[in-house]
Each structure stands twice: as C-alpha cells, then as structure tokens.
Design a protein that fits this description.
The protein is α/β, with parallel strands linked by helices and 503 residues long. The chain has 19 helices and eleven strands. Strand 2 and strand 3 form a beta hairpin.
C-alpha cells in the first residue's frame, strides 16, 4: 500500500463529496428560491451527517478496507444519481421534495463522513500519526478547494447539474475500483468487490450517456409546456418552453415572460417614463437581457444611445441569435444604438470609468427571491443609480413585483427608492401571466404622473389607460415596510413570506 496514492484518493473523494453538497444546495435554490436559506440548511445537514458518519465509523471493527471500498461504491451511486433524483422528485411530488432532499443529503453526508476515519485507520501502521493526520486533512481540504472552483467555473456551465453529479459519481466509483488494487493486501479475494464496482460504473455510465434524457424528463415535470431550449450558464439555468404559437422563458425555474402578453409588461415598464421625458436621448437598461425592454426603448426616435448591463453573456447572446427571441425583440440586440455590457449591475454602477449620465434608466431584474438579487433592490444600489441620472430631470423605472400578491414587498421597494433620494410614483399593470404587476417610477426631482404616451398606437396603453396605471385600489395601497439595505436584505424575507402563501 503506497501512502502517496492514498492521499490522491483522499483528494478525489473530498472533491466528489463537496460537489454532491453543492449540487444539492444549487438545485434546492433553483426550485425553492432563497439561496441563502437553501445552502445554509443543506450545508448544516450535510456537515451534521458527516459527524454522524465519523461517529459510526468507530463501530466498524473488521474488514476496514472492504468497508471503505463498499462505501465508495454507495457514495458513487447515491451521490451520482442525486441530481436527477431531486429533479424528478420535484416534478412528480413537489410537496415531498424537501423530504427527498434532506434524506439524500443526510445519507450522502453520513457515507462521506465514514471515509476519512477509515482512511486514517488503514494508514495508521504505515505513516507516523502526526504526519498521517496532517497529510490526510491537507488533501481533504485541498479537494474542497478544487470542488469549490471547478463547480461554478467548469462543471455547471459545461455539464449542467445532472451530468455533474453523475460524472462525480463515476469518479467516486473509479476511486472505489482503484482502491481494490491499492488495498489489495488487506482485501483477501477482491473479486466480489470489483464486480460491485463494475455494476456501479455501468449504472453511472448509462446515466451519463442518457443524462440529456434524464434532464428532459426532470424538466418536463417542472414545466407545464414542452421544453424547446435549455442551457446552463455560469449564472443560471435558461429554459424555454412552447405552447401553440407562444413561448415562455424561465430563469432558474422562475417565469420571466410569456410571448403571449409580455408586451403589457414591457410597455408598462418603459413608456410611462418616456411620457414624462419624451426627449430622452441616453438610456440605461439594467437587466433585461432578453432584449424586450430594449425593443420598447428603441421605438423612440429621440434615443441616440442605449447601454444594457446584464450579468449573463449567454442570455444576451441568446437574445441576439435565437430565432424566437430575435423575432420577439424585433432585432433590438443588433441595433447599432445598443451597447451590451456583461457585468454585475451593482459593480458596474461603481466603476470609475463609467461616469456618463443618463436621461432614463430601466431596471428589469428578476424578482428578489434570493440575496444575490436582493442586493439589486437596496438603498445602496438605488443611490448609485441616482448618481448616474441627469441631476435635473433623470428618471428610473423599476419593476417592483406584485402590489396585490406581494404587497409589502412592493411598498418596501418604493420606500427603499425614497430612502435613496428618489421622488417615487408607484404604478401597476395587469399582465395575465403574472396577474397585477407593480412598478415604481422614480425621479431625481419631483414630477407629475404622465398623462399621454409619447408614442401613438401602443398595444396596451393610451391616454386613459396610462393615467389609470397610477391609480392603486385599497387592496394595493401602502403598507408599513422597512428599507431594504445590503446588511439586512429584509425584502427577500418579505418576498418569500408573501409568495409562500400563494404557492
């Protein structure tokens, strides 16, 4: 038995173990939202289970090498198939998803917790104890570093969650098979173990070969309509579904628009601001990587330059190249007046080289269902945005979730903009795919609500309907709400609590 080879085994199993944990946390955040809660609870459950596994390892007295190999095969199969199992569970029985999630996390964590104590016991007669512990733990932590870098930068963007978990399962099974040679003197007759390993590898190799179909089956359960496009990027899972003549876009499982009625949302987002400032020439769009807000902006002849800041280059590339999206956004992404910047909007607003002022800004982010999105609805963010607007007549229009279904969240966004120095006029529009939807029109100086659109022949807006947007009924009226700040992210809590009642 060669200890350097065992250390490489530790490196591999540590990498695989952390990736299974990251897969579970990421997938839970995709389908349940609130990434902080999902990762916190998954990590807590996983580490607790590892402690249980370490404790249980003391009850294994005989055949330590054989038990280690069998545990590797068990981790390989259960961990490798965890992502497709979780996707399928959410599609088939969403009420039981949390039970399946934490059951898998506890089982995988327990098995992973057994591994290192068994390795230490296998090496205790070969390496001096102080060197043994130092080296094994060093390679264990180094494997965690590899996993934390590979997972977001390579594995998820290139393979997606299903292939990632299955591939790491194959690696785990390979480690188990390799261990039948590495620990050969301690195993007696390893034939049965190698047969078990071959079965595990065959199951996982088959799952990897059919991973696209497994993903399709899982996503068919998640979405009501047939899936026609999927792509995993560094930042999100993009899915497009189709029904009849219309299609829908989902990001991380959240509906962004339906082509049947998206015009009602985007006309409401864009044209009230232009009705106040019809001569706007320089326009900023934050988010809106689908190009639909840009389509409405570019209808105005006064516009000379549009800067779109969207985090995901794959999303903006899709909006430019995908036939369905390109038709829907009327080729806005290829308009010479549009400049696309793929950057985090909060970071971009702080860049010293970006100091030009804009007449209008449109903030078109997904709803604040997690803290990475919630930061884009904070007083800090709105303060940075205000500084980038014309100091006399600049306006910002912000999508603000539903004033009916998430009323406190809606007013939290309004209060937060006011705390950043905006004079805010809240308004709403009916978008059938979402229901009553809310917006906030904020000016750096006081302004009157618009009375007439700057453009004729809009599909959903004329003078009376535009004025009606700024009338909110009693069931959408103001509620007390805290200001959303970077250090508390109260908006995410409001949002989760309110939408949970409807889901």
């Amino acid at each position: 038995m060669r200890s350097p080879a065992v250390y490489l085994t530790v490196l591999a199993i540590a990498t695989c173990g952390l990736v299974y944990e990251l897969v579970a946390g990421t997938l839970a955040s995709y389908v349940l939202g609130d990434s902080v809660t999902q990762f916190s609870t998954v990590i807590g459950a996983y580490l607790s289970a590892m402690g249980i596994g370490s404790w249980l390892s003391g009850y294994l007295q005989r055949g330590i090498a054989s038990r280690f190999v069998q545990i590797e095969f068990a981790v390989a199969v259960i961990g490798g198939l965890s992502a497709p199992a979780l996707f399928l569970a959410f599609g088939a029985a969403p009420d039981l998803f949390r039970l399946v999630l934490y059951s898998l996390v506890l089982v995988i964590g327990t098995l992973v917790g057994l591994e290192i104590p068994l390795v230490l016991r296998l090496l205790k007669d070969v390496v001096e104890f102080k060197d043994l512990v130092a080296r094994v733990l060093a390679f264990d932590y180094l494997g965690a570093l590899f996993a934390s870098l590979l997972f977001p930068l390579v594995l998820v963007p290139e393979l997606g969650l299903v292939r990632t978990s299955v591939l790491l399962g194959l690696i785990n099974a390979g480690v188990g098979l390799w261990s039948t040679w590495l620990f050969r003197p301690l195993l007696g007759a390893p034939g049965l173990l190698r047969a078990q390993g071959a079965v595990a590898c065959a199951v996982l190799a088959t799952a990897f070969a059919y991973s696209d179909r497994l993903t399709e089956m899982a996503e068919e359960g998640l979405y009501a309509d047939p899936v026609v496009f999927t792509k995993s990027t560094r930042y999100q899972r993009i899915v497009m579904t189709r029904t009849g003549h219309h299609f829908q876009l989902f990001l991380n499982g959240q509906l962004q628009f339906s082509s049947a009625d998206e015009y009602r949302y985007h006309e409401a987002l864009v044209h009230p601001a232009f009705a106040v400032r019809p001569d706007a020439a320089r326009v900023l769009i934050l988010g809106g990587g689908d190009g639909l807000a840009a389509r409405e902006v570019l209808k105005h002849a006064s516009v000379r330059e549009v800067v779109m800041v969207d985090l995901d280059p794959e999303m903006t590339r899709l909006a430019k190249d995908n036939v369905m999206l390109r038709e829907l956004n009327a080729g806005a992404m290829s308009d010479p007046r549009l400049r696309v910047v793929n950057e985090d909007a909060l970071i971009w607003l702080q860049l010293p080289r970006e100091r030009s002022l804009f007449d209008l800004a449109f903030v078109d982010f997904p709803d604040p269902h997690n803290h990475s999105l919630g930061k884009l609805y904070t007083s800090h963010f709105y303060s940075l945005l205000r500084r980038r607007l014309d100091p006399a007549t600049g306006l910002a229009s912000v999508q603000s979730t539903s004033p009916l279904l998430a009323r406190r969240s809606f007013w939290c966004i309004n209060r937060t903009m006011e705390a950043a120095g905006f004079f805010v006029r809240p308004y709403h529009a009916l978008v059938p795919s979402f229901g009553e939807w809310g917006f906030a029109l904020g000016g750096v100086s006081p302004f009157e609500p618009p009375a007439e659109p700057a453009l004729p022949a809009l599909r959903s807006l004329d003078g009376p309907s535009l004025r009606a947007l700024f009338v909110l009924g009693p069931d959408m009226g103001p509620l007390p709400a805290e200001v959303n700040k970077l250090n508390n992210q109260v908006l995410v809590r409001y949002y989760e609590d309110e939408w949970r009642r409807w889901n």
